[in-house]
Amino acid sequence: MRKPLLLLLLLAGITGLHTVQAQPKNNKPVTPAKEDAPQHGSISLNPDTTVISYHDVTVKGQKIPYKAIAGTQPVWDQDGKVLAGLFYTYYERTDVKDRASRPLVISFNGGPGTPSVWMQIAYTGPRLLNIDDEGYPVQPYGIHENPESILDIADIIYIDPANTGFSRVTGKDAPREKFFGVNADIRYLAEWINTFVSRQNRWASPKYLIGESYGTTRVSGLALELQNAQWMYLNGVILVSPTELGISRNGPVDAALRLPYFAATAWYHKALAADLQQKDLTAILPEVEDFTIHELIPAISQGGFLQEQTRKTIAAKMARYSGLSEKVILQHNLNVPPNFFWKELLRDKGFTVGRLDSRYRGMDREDAGNGPDYNAELTSWLHAFTPAINIYLREELKFRTDLKYLMFGPVHPWDSNGDNTGENLREAMAANPYLHVMIQSGYYDGACDYFNAKYSMWQMDPGGRLKDRLSWHGYRSGHMMYLRKDDLATGNNDIRAFINASLPKAGQPAKY
């Protein structure tokens, strides 16, 4: 009996929202019209609503006025039947005279199963959640101005895919296969973006996709789908903490590529030898990367036929670079699982390290075991983000609803078959000379580690023909590298530079 009750609570209906529009001269947030009383036990969703308000934010010392639209837009089937309503927040600078040349950034997060909350109120948006300078929760919960927002140079829409945030599949008979899989996700979101761009009259604008984590899988596939099925061509794609993008790296390559991340984490926790520890992080990583490519991959490739002395030499170097003992490395046949590393590195100090951000420490029930009891960093982030996004959407943007905001929604089982998104992105770049790609990685991210991101970039361009339009940037934090104050500024500045560099000069044709 517990599951039906939880389902009703989870899908408690959104109250009747009305389209509300303020006068442009008023910069104060707008209070929506009187709403309908909530229907207890309702699982209905109004899939097509807007609540509009006007605000301003000071970015780089410049006051930026903007319009915020918090709303829903439908997903239809081929017969025009509404299958879902997707929640979004759209920020549009209001003192722009030439909207046609104003870039539009379309933003997704990942999971799959999470909304766009993470980058919206912690990275590129005009409002920032309350955290300390390293990204840890503080009270009172809430939000304040984001002085690093990219709203000065681009308008931004944050989209919550089906069954995340306030977005919902609307009917019991709506086919799950329409939404919950790599390629299904890409197809319906491309259609949705087409509708949004048409409604907001943004077809003339230079367009950019930004995705984080699984969102990088999503936007890499969308780059080609928008181009081929919607005839919408992009200027740029930004991959924040990218996944493997369907690019194969099984066996020795997979085992070896994680070592540079191990080294970065060990350096942060001062677990390396003194001569390495006294160097800067970016001074030691090229050495580890070179060893990984030229020695470790060939050694693991030889398996049990690797000469014993060579095996010991390789294990000793791995120990030097990882902070682990030679003994445990040999016990794992040179292939140390990340889960074990997160448990082992600080085992003697009574701590684990975080998966998504290994700067975070956790405390397990016991020191024994092969992996942490919980993800220390994710618990910390949910602590800070959940109150902040509810306060922001409900109180400041006045999106009135009794619907639960899903930080992680019911999207599983997820069909991961047919993930060719890295190749999709390469094909989109090859066919569109305007299209540029930038990758952003945190050195302490153990889920989507920085060296695997580099590897994906290399494999996306095996012929070396696109490398003048591919770039990579590293930051001294984890999966959500922008949670660290210094990286919030640096990361947004890198996005600004990327957008400015990828905008063609007036009259410059898209041709080779």
UniProtKB/TrEMBL annotation:
Residues 1-22 form the signal peptide. Keywords: Carboxypeptidase, Glycoprotein, Hydrolase, Protease, Signal. Transmembrane segments: none annotated. Residues 23-45 are annotated as: Disordered. GO terms for molecular function: carboxypeptidase activity. The keyword Protease applies. PANTHER family: RETINOID-INDUCIBLE SERINE CARBOXYPEPTIDASE, SERINE PROTEASE FAMILY S10 SERINE CARBOXYPEPTIDASE. This is Carboxypeptidase.
